[in-house]
Known about the structure:
Elements (H helix, E strand, L loop, with lengths): L5 E5 L6 H9 L7 E4 L4 H8 L3 E4 L22 H16 L3 E4 L2 H10 L7 E4 L11 H14 L2 E4 L2 H9 L7 E3 L13 H8 L6 E4 L9 H9 L5 E5 L7 H13 L6 E5 L4 H7 L2 E4 L9 H9 L3 E4 L4 H4 L7 E3 L4 H12 L4 H16 L2 H20 L1
Parallel strand pairs: 1-2, 1-4, 2-3, 4-5, 5-6, 6-7, 8-9, 8-11, 9-10, 11-12, 12-13
Helix pairs in contact: 3-4, 4-5, 7-10, 8-13, 11-14
The structure holds uridine-5'-diphosphate and alpha-D-glucopyranose.
Amino acid sequence: MGSERILFVDHTGQIGGAELILLDVVAGRENSSAFLFEDGPLAKALAERKLKLIISRWGHGLSQFRRDSKWLAAVPLAGRLIAIVEELAIAAQAHEVVYANSQKAFVLAAIASLFVRRPLIWHLHDIISPAHFGAMQRRMQVMLANARATKVIVPSQAAAAAFIEAGGKRELVEIVPNGLALPPEPRTAAELRQSLGLPDGPLVGVFSRLAAWKGQHVLIAALAALPGVGCIVVGDALFGEQAYAAELKQMVLQRGLADRVRFLGHRSDVPKLMKAIDVMVHPSIDPEPFGRTLVEAMLAGVPVIATNAGAAPDLLEGGRAGTLVPPNDAPALARAISAVLEGPDALRSQLAYAASRAQAQYSVTRMLEAIRLVIRKLQAGAAA
Length: 384
Ligand code: UDP
Ligand code: GLC
């Protein structure tokens, strides 16, 4: 399985959702290598999966370079970017396929492909829209994709539509929904809460990394209107959003919520934490490209409340597998949380439906099979 020599490229050393997908994609691909712009937990996890690692000498800190940064701000970095392109071109020579797992990785890999041409896959985990990227960045991504990508894999219809809307060629796009699995957990929610030191009483949770567009502040605002409801905020600022993390903590203090809201930081036991809560809230204020935590909660049998944008309405089948609320609307979110906490009868069938939908549509096996097929077809094309 997976005998191709693939050069996987990512710009970050941190492990966000896109990198968790990459870790599943590389499993069993020991002939392949990973090129990272910087060292970090991702490098360690890839090495554990027996990939050969190449860490750029020039890429450190680029993942903190904000996605909305103005193009001009990149100019002093130009020398480093050129050096990374050269490293990538050299690395590509020893591989049959290049697989870029982030937009920064793709842009530089596409430029490197001008010197060393290999079939180039862009696994695009983002929504290319003004909410997420500046105009110059969008033009550059789409122009390079149309000129150099052999395939663009996206996790949802929403991500596909945004790419095409931005000018990307429709025929490049392959929709491969993310695949998720959760380890079995025999303990009950009450037992889990006790073992995790979580309080009794109604408890909601949010599991996204801390970033303004993930909208944790909207949930905090909603909690102010929900006396007696506790909340765990799981996740940390992974990509240069430390100021937002500090603002959130400040907001909790200012609103007198310190005894009800707990910041747990980045955790490696998300499945357990999810099974211990009463509601999983996904409050992104910009369209979510996929949202792994939605499916994780569906698999965990926990009610989901998500904002009605990006991939969430698809994942939740327009509200059949969870509750949809308008983005950036704290009162509406508060009402939805109360309604779910009241435990209406309809919730039981919604949860059963959500779990079976997640297992059927968003399995790791299904995702890996689809990606394997993309790689195989593209190699056949290259050989023809
Ligand atoms: N996650 C985690 N620890 C945390 C917070 C999040 O392991 O403290 C995981 C979460 O379970 C999910 C992933 O990180 O699998 C985040 O992926 P998602 O697609 O929801 O969002 P992203 O951060 O990639 O935009
Ligand atoms: C990105 C997106 C997230 C998606 C993940 C994996 O980080 O923000 O929505 O689930 O990639 O594709």
